[in-house]
Amino acid sequence: MSEEVPWPACFACKYEGRGRPCFQNDRLDTPRLVRTWREYQRLSAGSRDERKRADDLFWVWECYDTLAHHAPEKALELICDTLDAVDSDKEIGLLAAGPMEDLIAGHGESVIDEVERLAWSDLKFRQMLLGVWSQGNDDSEVWQRVLRARAGKRPESLSRKPTKPHGA
Q: What is the mean pLDDT of each run of 10 residues along the chain (168 residues)?
């Protein structure tokens, strides 16, 4: 049975006749996306020939971008899977200044609770947040929460004491 895709096909899938390279067996192929994103980033910073080869992998950027705009929870999962795989500060910075920054700018209100929780519990995630810029939203509540999260402040949602049942 096919899983219905909850977001539109990206530009590369729609107009370049690639099918859906981000899918395997009707499911998002997260390991392939992570590997291809890393290869795309590596080639993009390489020689002229490598940059030409990166053009063939641009579809992966389109996929991350489409998820960030149309499926924020799935995008955050993919960002976390990618973060788990990266092994350099440069890659962490690219992930921060690209997919994570786009996600916060476009859907910060819907993902900020999870972003705070992840920053509180995962030092590498908090490090990645250091590379995210405000996109002109310096005064927004979401951006203020991002600043607190990347500074290692405990999220308010985790600070609340559980309430005791009435009469306990």
A: 50 59 73 95 96 92 89 94 96 96 95 95 96 88 94 75 47
